[in-house]
Amino acid sequence: MTAELLEQTVDRSKAEAFAERLLNIFNSGALSLMISIGHRTKLFDILAELPAATSQQIADIAGLNERYTREWLNAMVVGHIVNYNPTDKTYKLPVEYAAFVTRAASPDNMAVFAQYISELASVEDQIVECFYKGGGVPYSKFKRFHEVMAEDSGQTIVAVLEDSILPLVPGLSEKLQRGIDVLDVGCGSGRALNKLAWLFPNSRFTGYDFSIEAIATATTEAQQQNLTNVQFEVKDTTRLDEVEKYDLVFTFDAVHDQARPDWVLRNIYNALRADGVYLMQDIHASTEVSGNLDHPVAPLLYTVSCMHCMTVSLAEGGLGLGTMWGQEKALELLKEAGFSQIEIKQLSHDFMNDYYIIKK
């Protein structure tokens, strides 16, 4: 196509709007990195407690270097997140914004999610290589993913376990009070299981994950809380061979990035007792991309999929279903595993996840 013909066929307003959108994307991507830093350094938390203050005052309270603190604050100012008074050179975080970027705002602290962007960016070179050669990037290359995931699940899962998630299954809390056997597959750092073990001392809890680091963290936290009814073990659940051992099995956002989700689900089916319940929390999405056009965070989730969930599965020679495997695929694999009773529920605070109540 000649330049002259291209000029005739291009909708200039559409092209300019797209160029403007790209600039907004680049600015937002840059701000995501700054928001992550603000969360990790607790600058948002400190700003929320302060009246208008100078960069030096803020840095002193935070125990941070003033020059870096000032540059971060200026990024927040031009990003329209922090207010700035040029007369006295003071900065102030609006209370309305503090409600979404501080630890006190949990489970609404959205600054937690910004950490995923920098963590994913750390493996960009390896991901680009996979585009050319196939394969995947293993879990070991992600230095903070378990840490960030634990903080994320602490807001969306652990904080609402007792009041929102357990009531999804009628009578479940009462059974836990009396005492049952519980398994968490892909337990990560064990925050959910440790909380359940503390809430229900008569029940017996087991957590499996193939991450040595995550299991070490889970075990240490259980010991610190003097929990004697919970145990954690490093285990590849594609090789799980337990039969009718548990009354309740959990998976919290853990199935889709398994190397072989089909094998894991079949093993869960075998490990569950005949009258048991499997509660699977996983991403709310459609398997077909056209069903996700109106999903509020679809671009983020497909990026997380490409740069983590899909690639860690492929690194193990797995199916690589990815984050957005969707309800249709999930239902297909659950039925293939042998489950016949499946109900999908959602929670008002959690637009990102579905909760599958599953029985044999």
From TrEMBL:
Residues 178-337 form the Methyltransferase domain. Residues 29-103 form the S-adenosylmethionine-dependent methyltransferase Rv2258c-like winged HTH domain. It comes from the Bacteria. InterPro entries: Methyltranfer_dom, SAM-binding_MTase, SAM-dependent_MTases_sf, WH-like_DNA-bd_sf, WHD_Rv2258c. CDD domains: AdoMet_MTases. PANTHER family: METHYLTRANSFERASE TYPE 11, S-ADENOSYLMETHIONINE-DEPENDENT METHYLTRANSFERASE RV2258C. This is Transcriptional regulator.
